[in-house]
Write a structure and sequence with these properties.
The complex is a heterodimer. By secondary structure, chain A is of the alpha+beta class. Chain A has a seven-stranded mixed beta sheet with strand order 18-20-17-21-19-22-23, with helices on both faces. A seven-stranded mixed beta sheet of chain A has the order 36-38-35-39-37-40-41. A six-stranded antiparallel beta sheet of chain A has the order 3-1-2-5-4-6. By secondary structure, chain B is α/β, with parallel strands linked by helices. Helix content of chain B is 27%, strand content 22%. The longest helix of chain B has 10 residues, at 17-26. Chain B starts with a strand and ends with a helix. The chains are: A alpha+beta, B alpha/beta. At the A-B interface, α1, α3, α14, α16 and β25 of A face α1, α2, α3, β6 and α7 of B.
């Protein structure tokens, strides 16, 4: 076992808030922890003199508050157990990288990138803690997929003089050459190769290729024509390129005989129709072809947007999965056109109830427990915090959503908005092309075994065979350096022809993708910088190690490009040349290991043929429950629900002010209520704002997937308009997260949703500019008794909206501002509580289980459009003093949110609500009918406001109060809700108080 | 008037360089963003500048503690040059991560006038969580700070995980005695926050948000003035606008934070 020459332990000399936070967290979970101390440990293995290591140590401590010990263990005065947590071999250790750089800078010589510095953290606990409890505490503090743990009692720690100096070196002995894979072995073996991967010499398998039999046969036939079998690197590369993750095989499949498939028939066709109808008012740039989609911001700039999911990795390592997701989608911005600058992040998390502690296991033996929902939630939230904040990109816009169906697999949506000038030098910034003879250059992080099979892995359901190497940890600083060097310098100096991100599939996808622009490539794989030796060629080629971009650099620009990158601390490697040979060729130490026809690689994938089946009509459940008599307490319970309550703790830990453009923030009003829309100015010298919002209604999917999708779009659009966005410059993005997508009934739901996507987007004139899908969000595992468990997510469609507000100063927030202001409700309320938050509360209140059935809101696009146009005008003319778009929880929740944000009460009369027929009070309060907005208006502007809405369903429904009293009267005129801002605030804030 | 020239530092994860440059230019300075490696390569360039700004960010990811690694890089390569710069009639401003770097370098508070050794620290927030929120600040009167002249209060945001100002008892006393505390977090009543969260967002001793050196030409602050320079950056602008319009008053274009940059520029007028 290799040990380090030096171990530096850094400890706090004064009370450390970190230790207190750990103590609090563990106490809350019931562990008898009395005190916590910590040390940060740096294991340094390099030829460094004892004098110099002292100097190095001083770089690692803040001498006013910290002390250090070299090769002597820290011994806090009080502890019963010590728990050391370090990384497993090969896991990204960002702190170690920084320390290595600092010490190299001090010594003025390079240290080995992967073998010289390692870090660990030791926790010292005291209290009446049993052996079982200390094990559980340790489990709470580490994730065995990426970290190792060492627990010692106080006596053991003393006797062994501390934790020792073990360092987790990667020790790989992969075959440094390519294997030939025999495909002429019959159907059965082909199926095994597809499902479990290529066989190693010892009989083990390399992990799923995730190809179907039709694809395997096409591949076999291709190689028959070439009169040989494929090498492993060829087969792996084809699998990556053809994966569901990269090629969207289900969206591209022939469906019910329609050869165009879902994507072309519904999504892309919607955009084409809208662009054609808009004619010279079309504002789209580079949609569906680049790493992000773009729309015109002003005469000189384009804004870009892309929303990704990172579900499977986040289920295994929530922190690593989420940080890798957010930092990864940043690269979809950097990789747009000639490189756009990231200006805002989005997020959206779907979790199971964090209070659910019933264990689930990946394996029948119940040795591998799924992380409980709370751990997943904490880790994911923290991952986006670390990725977004560290990168200096504001993260204003996001949501959290809870449903038991996300217990097997959470959904982690991450998005990034960018900005790029329309022209860069004399080039059109959205046009790029690698040229025959250009060097293939990679910049950024090195390649390791991490992230192998990410693309194929996310194309399958999560089960016990899921590869741990799919887990990675993002390194935002390495990426920040390369981002700045590219976006702020190299791009404008014209140092490259084309650029793309290394995401899923790693080099195999990025190089092959860029090679389409010129017609071929030739790579010398041994030129790729590795984290550690011992990788096989196929691993280098498909590894998804993060923070890398691939560029095509013309020969005359190579020297200045490398010079610039070196000065900015960005590692660069020239790994080959783009060609026009029509083939992709990969050499490894002079031996050709890969030689494929590019056309086959990109277009050879056989189209899937899918058919859908409408589920047998269930007896239409009519939700029958009496109207509650205590509507005030129902209101309070609604405000405290997971899907409605405030999540200030997330908004305030995500920096949403960096870059100084924030206009409408994630928390609105003095009461700090989470809004559904945010606005920021990406150019500080311009008045224009970018408006971001979203809509999703997974709870509607089971009842009516068509309406579910229509509602998601309507909400995403309406939220943006209600904040001040112009309908004439509003685009949307689609993220389908589906389940069990080989099942014809699931596919029927998918097609229904897609049909609504076409109809609704075209009606609103809001084109899709980018999208991404994730089709297998299912979990197969076992419960505590060893029974099989199968959990699918509810089909989830996230529609994100991005638009432009002509004058950010005319945007509006939700808070009630001035007593006496009239409250108007725009839009018609119907009996549309099916799948609503109110129904899910009712099920819990009555104890009779979830209320099923009922009618999901329908979206009346043309009526809504008239209302949105009027609202847009009212906002532009400054007639609106508060504006909130109605979402989950309907009118009741929206009115209370405006009150809490403004810290002002109100009166509201349900009898005045424009309704489709005579409705119960609870329906009027909580129906989630779409198309509705609640607006406050200065009485002196009421006439003007009303005249704009002539012919549109709207009414005065209430008034903003002087004090904090909230009073809602029912349709019959009696008071049904009587409460105060303070009481409702307590309910709204209490839900996530423990976080 | 000749525009004073501002060097806005960048590199290794500094990320508020562009808006800080914008703020200085908006206030009338001629500002350039310069990578630290370019200064190390050509330290003589510092002589061309009158103002040195350490912007906010996450230098080196704050991996070994906020601002520590960047302070280390300066210590290893530029300490003498920084000392010479500060000895000229120049200004130095550190915001957030920039303040953390200055404290780690001993540029602030520099009570013993010895650059290179830290006398105070900015430690983890009491909540042990990153806090991005708006705060009210009391700007202390009678301090030597050039940057805060004429300012009484500020409403601007903080965004940091390690902003808890800590110094030994004696250092704190010296800071107070020499009037080097330039800003404190205010409570809802306008007086000092007295450590109460979220008014004091990090638990700072004495509610300290900002300090300066004895000469008043060097200041560091945790809150971000460049994030509160425009009216529409404020967290309460839609409410203020509604009130102003109804009173028939003009809606301003600027907000509190710009005054810090204007003071810096006016120093050279």
């Amino acid at each position: 076992m290799k040990t380090a020459r030096y171990r530096i332990e850094v400890y706090a000399k004064i009370a450390d808030a970190r230790c207190e936070a750990v103590r609090l967290k563990l106490s809350r979970q019931g562990f008898p922890v009395k005190t916590v101390f910590m040390s940060d440990n740096y294991l340094i293995d390099a030829e460094i003199s004892p004098e110099m290591i002292e100097q190095a140590a001083t770089l690692l401590v803040q001498p006013v508050v910290q002390g250090y010990l070299i090769n002597t263990p820290y011994m806090p005065e009080e502890f019963t157990h010590a728990v050391e947590i370090g990384f497993l071999p090969g896991v990204t250790d960002n702190v170690a990288h920084t320390v290595r750089e600092s010490i190299s800078d001090l010594l003025k010589r390079e240290l080995d990138m992967e073998k010289s510095v390692f870090t660990t953290v030791t926790y010292f606990f005291s209290g009446p803690i049993s052996d079982g409890e200390i094990q559980s505490i340790g489990n709470e503090l580490h994730n065995p997929l990426i970290q190792r743990m060492n627990i010692l009692s106080r006596d053991e720690y003393r006797a062994r003089s501390g934790m020792g100096r073990y360092i987790p070196l990667v020790d790989l002995h992969e075959k440094p050459s390519a294997d030939v894979v025999d495909l002429e072995t019959g159907e059965d073996e082909l199926a095994v190769i597809a499902r479990e991967g290529i066989a190693n010499e010892d009989g083990s398998r390399r992990g799923p290729l995730a190809l179907d039999m039709a694809s395997m046969e096409v591949i076999r036939d291709y190689f028959r024509k070439e009169s040989r079998n494929p090498t492993d690197i060829e087969l792996e590369s084809i699998a990556q390129t053809w994966s569901e993750h990269c090629k969207h095989t289900i969206f591209a499949a022939e469906i019910d005989g329609d050869g165009e498939g879902i994507f072309r028939s519904y999504i892309r066709r919607a955009t084409e129709t809208i662009r054609r109808e808009k004619g010279d008012r079309d504002f789209c740039y580079s949609v569906f072809k680049d790493n992000s989609g773009g729309i015109e911001f002003d005469d000189d700039y384009i804004i870009t947007d892309k929303v990704e999911t990172h579900n499977s990795p986040s289920a295994l390592d929530p922190f690593g999965g989420a940080i890798t997701g957010i930092v990864g989608v940043n690269r979809d911005t950097i990789g747009f056109g000639l490189a756009a600058k990231p200006v805002a992040n989005r997020y959206g998390f779907c979790f199971a109830d964090p209070a659910d502690e019933t264990p689930l296991f990946r394996d029948r033996e119940r040795s591998r427990r799924l992380l409980p929902p709370r751990r997943i939630m904490e880790g994911v939230i923290h991952g986006v915090n670390a990725g977004g904040n560290t990168s200096g990109i504001p993260t204003p816009q996001g949501f959290i959503y809870f449903d038991a169906g996300y217990k097997g697999k959470p959904l982690v949506f991450v998005g990034t908005v960018g900005i790029i000038p329309k022209t860069v030098g004399d080039r059109v910034s959205v046009e790029k092309s690698a040229v025959d003879g250009d060097h293939i250059v990679i910049v950024g992080g090195r390649v390791g075994r991490d992230g192998i099979h990410g693309a194929t892995f996310s194309s399958e359901a999560l089960s016990s065979g899921s590869p741990a190497t799919a887990v990675q940890i993002g390194d935002p600083i390495t990426q920040k350096k390369l981002s700045d060097a590219l976006v702020k310098e190299a791009r404008d100096l014209g140092l490259y022809h084309s650029i793309t991100d290394n995401g899923a599939g790693g080099l195999s996808c990025s190089v092959a993708e860029m090679a389409r622009e010129c017609g071929g490539f030739r790579v010398d794989l041994e030129q790729v910088p590795l984290k550690y030796p011992g990788l096989s060629p196929w691993q280098i080629w498909v590894s998804e190690s993060q923070e890398r971009m691939t560029l095509s650099v013309p020969p005359e620009k190579l020297e200045p490009f490398i010079h610039l990158m070196t000065r900015r601390g960005v590692e660069t490697a020239v790994i080959g040349k783009f060609t026009s040979s029509g083939r992709g060729e990969v050499m490894f130490h002079g031996e050709k290991v890969f030689d494929l026809d590019l056309f086959f690689l990109h277009e050879g994938l056989p189209q899937k043929k899918l058919s859908t089946r409408k589920p047998a009509a269930k007896a239409p459940a009519v939700p029958g429950f009496p109207e509650p008599s205590d509507m005030t307490s129902v209101m309070g319970e609604m405000m405290g629900r997971l899907n409605i309550a405030g999540f200030e703790f997330i908004s305030t830990q995500y920096d949403h002010e960096v870059q100084a453009g924030s206009v409408i923030k994630p928390l609105q009003g003095a009461g700090k209520v989470n809004g559904n829309t945010s606005v920021f100015r990406p150019l500080l010298a311009s008045k224009k704002g970018v408006v971001l919002s979203q809509g999703l209604y997974p709870s509607y999917s089971g009842i009516d997937p068509y309406r579910m999708a229509a509602c998601s779009i309507d909400t995403a659009v309406r939220n943006a308009v209600a904040a001040g966005c112009s309908l004439d410059r509003l685009a949307i993005l689609d993220n389908f997260c589906w389940c069990d997508s080989n099942n014809p009934e699931r596919l029927w739901q998918l097609k229904e949703a897609a049909r609504a996507c076409y109809d609704t987007a075209v009606a609103y004139g809001t084109p899709y500019i980018s999208g991404k899908d994730s089709m297998f969000n299912d979990f197969r595992g076992f419960d505590a008794d060893g029974n099989e468990v199968y959990i699918s997510i509810p089909p989830t469609l996230l529609i994100s909206s991005i638009g432009v507000a002509e004058d950010a100063e005319m945007c509006q927030t939700m808070d009630f501002k001035v007593p006496g202001d009239i409250i108007y409700l725009v839009g018609l309320t119907g009996d549309e509580c099916g799948g609503s938050e109110y129904h899910s509360l009712t099920g819990e209140r009555t104890g009779e289980g979830p209320v099923t059935g009922g009618t999901v809101p329908s979206v009346e696009c043309s009526a809504n459009l008239a209302a949105y146009r009027a609202l847009e005008k009212a906002l532009r003319e400054g007639l609106v003093s508060s504006s909130i778009s109605l979402e989950r929880g309907g009118l009741g929740v929206a009115a209370i949110k405006s009150a809490l944000a403004g810290m002002r009460g109100f009166t509201l009369s349900l009898g005045a609500v424009p309704a489709a027929g005579k409705l119960r009070d609870d329906t009027l309060l909580f129906s989630e009918s779409q198309g509705r907005v609640l607006a406050g208006v200065d009485p002196s502007k009421a006439g003007k406001f009303e005249s704009l809405f002539a012919g549109i369903a709207f009414a005065r429904v209430g008034e903003v109060a002087e004090g904090g009293v909230i009073r809602i009267t029912g349709a019959g005129g009696e008071n049904i809700v009587e409460t105060t801002v303070d009481e409702m605030m307590e309910r709204y804030r209490s839900c996530f108080r423990g976080f | 008037m000749v525009k004073p020239r501002t060097l806005v530092l960048t590199g290794y994860g500094i990320n508020c360089d562009e808006e800080t440059k914008f703020a200085f230019e908006y206030a009338g300075s001629d500002a350039s963003i310069v990578h630290i490696n370019d200064i190390i390569e050509e330290p003589g360039m510092l002589e061309r500048f009158q103002i040195f700004a350490f912007p906010g960010g996450f230098s080196y990811g704050d991996d070994t503690g906020s601002g520590k690694a960047l302070a280390g890089r300066i210590k290893n390569n530029l300490l003498e040059e920084m000392r010479r710069f500060s000895e000229r009639d120049t200004l130095m401003l550190g915001i957030c991560n920039g303040f953390q770097v200055m404290v780690n370098l001993g540029i602030l508070p520099a009570l013993d006038r010895k650059i290179g050794e830290a006398e105070a620290a900015l430690i983890h927030n009491g909540s042990f969580r990153y806090q991005c929120r708006w705060v009210d600040l009391i700007v202390e009167k009678g301090t030597p700070s050039v940057f805060t002249r004429g300012i009484e209060t500020l409403h601007i945001p903080v965004a940091h995980g390690e902003g808890n100002f800590y110094a030994p008892e004696k250092t704190l006393k010296d800071l107070e005695r020499n009037k080097l505390v330039t800003m404190r977090y205010a409570g809802p009543g306008g007086g000092p926050a007295e450590g109460v969260f979220p008014y004091n967002p990090n638990g700072s001793a004495g509610d300290i948000a900002s300090i300066c050196d004895a000469g008043g030409r060097i200041m560091g602050m945790m809150p971000h003035p460049e994030r509160g320079m425009f009216f529409t950056q404020r967290d309460d602008w839609t409410l203020l606008k509604e009130r102003l319009t109804r009173r028939g008053e003009e809606v301003p274009a600027h907000s509190d934070g710009i005054a810090i940059f204007q003071n810096a520029v006016n120093y050279f007028a």
